[in-house]
Write a structure and sequence with these properties.
The structure is a single chain. By secondary structure, this protein is mostly helical. It is 45% helix and 4% strand. The chain has two domains: 27-220, no CATH class; 303-422, no CATH class. The chain is built from twelve helices and five strands. Strand 3 (27-32) and strand 4 (35-40) form a beta hairpin. Helix 3 (83-93) packs across helix 4, helix 6 runs antiparallel to helix 7 and helix 10 (201-208) packs across helix 11.
Length: 422
C-alpha cells in the first residue's frame, strides 16, 4: 500500500507506471526534540545544497518506506534545533496558504533567520532580513546583538551609530550587553564625535570595530543566493571588461605617445641635421670668402708698378724678360690722359687715369672695378685688356683670362702668367 500526497491510500503501483519528474516527491523525516516532522525533499534539496549534502539527502534514493510512529526502524534525521524555531522555519519553506504575502510574527522571522543562517538556506535568510529590517526594534543594543550574531552589517553599524548619537550615556547594563571592551571603544568614539561633528562617523566606527566588520564581510560569500551569485558573476564580468578596456586604452595611449615622441625626435634630428648642414655651408662660404679676400690682399700687396718702366699696349714679354715692378700710384682725381667720363677715386696705373669707373682701381678705361685694361668690359676684379672678356681676376691684354692673373696675349687657367707666356 502507498499513500498519496493528499493522504489517500491506494493499491500498489503497477510495474508499467512511470514516475513524474516534478510531482512525484520523495519525503524525508526529521526528528526535533523527539518530535517527528515529515516533509517533501524537493524544497530542502533546491534551497540548500549544503544542508542536503550534510544530511545525505543529495543521494538518489527511492521514496522512503512507510513506518508507524512506534516502528524502531523509522529512518528519521535528527536535527539540532528547537521545535518552536523549526516549526516557524517550516512555515516559511512549506506555507499552507500561497495567496498573498507570507505572514509571520517578528519572533517567527527571527527563528527563520536563525535556522536559515545556520543551515545556509540563503534565500530564506535574505527574506527574513528584509522582513526584519523595519522590525529589528528601536533598541540599539538589540541591533548590535543581532547584527553580530547573524552577520548583518547594516544592523551592527546602525546599532553602534545610535549608541554614539543618542543623548543618554552608555550604561553599565549596555556595557554588559555589548562587552566591556566594545563599550570603552564606543565611549571614545562618542566623545571624539561630540568634539568634532565633521568626523565621518560610519567610517570611524568601521575603523574602530574593523575586526567585527571584516568577519561579517568574510561570511557574506557563504550567504549568497543563486541570484546574488549570478549578479556577482555579471559584476565581475563587467569589471573585467572595464579593466580590459582601460588596459587597451592605456596601451593605445602609450603607443600613440611613443609614436609621437619618435616622430618628434625624428623631426628634431632632421631639423638639427638641416641646420648643421646650412651652418656648415655658411661657414664654408665664409671661409672661402675670407680666403679669396686674403688672396686678393696678398696679391695686391705683392703686385707693384715701376714708374720707370713703360709698356706699350699689346707688348708681350717672353720668359726670361726683366720682371715688371708694379707699384700702385697714389689715388688722384686728376687725369693724365683725358677721358670722356671722370673716374671717382680712380687709381691710375702706367700713368693713365682710371676712367668710367666708380670707386675702382681700374686703368686704361676699364669699366670693371679693379680692371686693368683699356676699352675692356672686365667682369671681375683686375680683369681687362684691349676688348677682352675677362672672366676672372687680373686678366691679360687680348686674353680670355679664366683665372687669376692671366697674361698678355695668352689664356691663363691658373696663377700669375707672364707677358707672352702661358
Amino acid at each position: 500500500m502507498t499513500t498519496t500526497s493528499s493522504g489517500m491510500t491506494q493499491s500498489a503501483i503497477s510495474p508499467q507506471c512511470a514516475f513524474d519528474e516534478d510531482y512525484y516527491w520523495d519525503f524525508v523525516t526529521f526528528s526535533v526534540e523527539d518530535l517527528l516532522f515529515r516533509v517533501p525533499k524537493y524544497r530542502i534539496m533546491s534551497d540548500s545544497e549544503t544542508f542536503a549534502r550534510e544530511h545525505g539527502l543529495d543521494q538518489d534514493n527511492t521514496s522512503e518506506r512507510e513506518y508507524s510512529s512506534d516502528d524502531p526502524l523509522l529512518n528519521a534525521i535528527k536535527l539540532d534545533a528547537s521545535v518552536v524555531d523549526f516549526r516557524a522555519f517550516l512555515k516559511a519553506l512549506y506555507p499552507k496558504f500561497i495567496q498573498g504575502e507570507l505572514l509571520l510574527s517578528t519572533d517567527e522571522w527571527l527563528s527563520v533567520l536563525k535556522l536559515s543562517s545556520k543551515w545556509f538556506f540563503n534565500g530564506f535568510r535574505k527574506m527574513a532580513i528584509e522582513k526584519l529590517a523595519p522590525l529589528a526594534g528601536t533598541d540599539p543594543m538589540e541591533k548590535v546583538r543581532l547584527g553580530k550574531e547573524y552577520s548583518v552589517e547594516s544592523w551592527l553599524l546602525s546599532g553602534y551609530r545610535e549608541l554614539v548619537e543618542r543623548d543618554a550615556v552608555i550604561s553599565v547594563e549596555d556595557a554588559r550587553k555589548v562587552g566591556l571592551e566594545n563599550a570603552i571603544e564606543l565611549f571614545g568614539v562618542r566623545e571624539e564625535w561630540r568634539a568634532d561633528r565633521a568626523i565621518p562617523l560610519e567610517s570611524r566606527l568601521k575603523s574602530v570595530f574593523s575586526s567585527q566588520f571584516e568577519t561579517i564581510a568574510a561570511a557574506q560569500a557563504s550567504y549568497m543566493t543563486a541570484e546574488d551569485k549570478e549578479e556577482e558573476a555579471k559584476r565581475k564580468e563587467r569589471a573585467e571588461k572595464e579593466a580590459k578596456a582601460a588596459k587597451e586604452l592605456k596601451e593605445k595611449e602609450a603607443k600613440d605617445a611613443a609614436e609621437r615622441e619618435e616622430r618628434e625626435a625624428r623631426e628634431a634630428a632632421e631639423r638639427q641635421e638641416r641646420e648643421a648642414r646650412e651652418a656648415a655651408e655658411r661657414e664654408e662660404k665664409s671661409r672661402r670668402l675670407e680666403e679669396i679676400s686674403k688672396e686678393v690682399v696678398e696679391l695686391s700687396t705683392e703686385l707693384k708698378v715701376d714708374p720707370a718702366v713703360s709698356l706699350p699696349i699689346g707688348a708681350g714679354l717672353t720668359m726670361g724678360a726683366p720682371k715688371v715692378s708694379m707699384q700702385p700710384v697714389t689715388p688722384s682725381l686728376s687725369t693724365a690722359i683725358p677721358s670722356k667720363e671722370p673716374s671717382a677715386v680712380g687709381y691710375t696705373w702706367f700713368g693713365a687715369p682710371a676712367s668710367g669707373t666708380t670707386n675702382s682701381y681700374s686703368s686704361f678705361g676699364s669699366s670693371s672695378p679693379f680692371g686693368f685694361g683699356t676699352q675692356a668690359d672686365a667682369s671681375s676684379a683686375f680683369g681687362g685688356s684691349v676688348k677682352p672678356d675677362a672672366s676672372s681676376a687680373f686678366g691679360g691684354i687680348k686674353a680670355d683670362a679664366s683665372s687669376a692673373f692671366g697674361t698678355f696675349g695668352q689664356k691663363s687657367t691658373l696663377g700669375l702668367g707672364t707677358f707672352g707666356a702661358k
